[in-house]
Amino acid sequence: MNGWALAALITIVAIIVVIRRLRGEPLNARDLFGAPLVLTGLGIWALCEADGLTGTDLVWVVAGSVLGIALGALRGATIQIFGKEGVLWQRYTGRTFLIALASFVVMAGYGFLAVRLGMHENARPVQLSIGVGFLGEALVVGARGLASGVPFAPERERRR
Fold first, then answer.
1. Mean pLDDT value across the chain
2. Does any domain span residue 49?
3. pLDDT at 52 over 50
């Protein structure tokens, strides 16, 4: 897939997820973990396909992934989780967006620093960065949901 087309697809998916969570939506495990795992997998695949990666690149990628997960976890701590209609719901808050903006700035700075200190530009797949951030968020939201004692929402039925 063309790099621009993939970036556009990832952007569209991320926007849809954010809009749904801003309005509030039932919290189910498939929706919570599906997109982060797919994006992280695509990022790892892109990394494996990249030519000329070095051990230094991998160190920067691993450290950046840990930072991304931590920032996502911080964002996950700001998400409102509540019971509605007998199941868990989630909603992004103003603080969620502030943390998301701060995370973007931190990760952009990290990426700039990494490239200035020798990391190859093709060792920074966007889908990996987005995926690990959403994964960190999902881990915290999932743990908070389990601790609440309210059941997760069932999966939505697929239309035929």
1. 89
2. yes
3. yes
Helices 126-148 and 55-76 pack at an angle, to 10 degrees, of 40
Q: For 26-49, what is the mean pLDDT?
A: 91
How many CB atoms sit inside 10 A of residue 55's CB?
7
Q: How many domains are contained in the chain?
A: 1
Domain contains 153: no
Hey, how many other C-beta atoms are within 10 angstroms of the C-beta on 82? 12
Range of the domain at 68: 3-148
pLDDT at 78: 97
Q: Locate the DSSP E strands across 9-79.
A: 25-26
Q: Single out the residue of 128, 112, 117 nearest to residue 68, CA to CA.
A: 128
At 16, phi and psi to the nearest 5?
-60, -45
Q: Who contacts 40 (Cβ-Cβ below 8 Å, separation ≥6)?
A: 127, 128, 131, 132, 135
Tell whether 42 is covered by a domain: yes
pLDDT for the residue 22: 87
pLDDT(32) > 70: yes
| Domain-located, residue 25 | yes
What pLDDT is recorded for position 159?
43
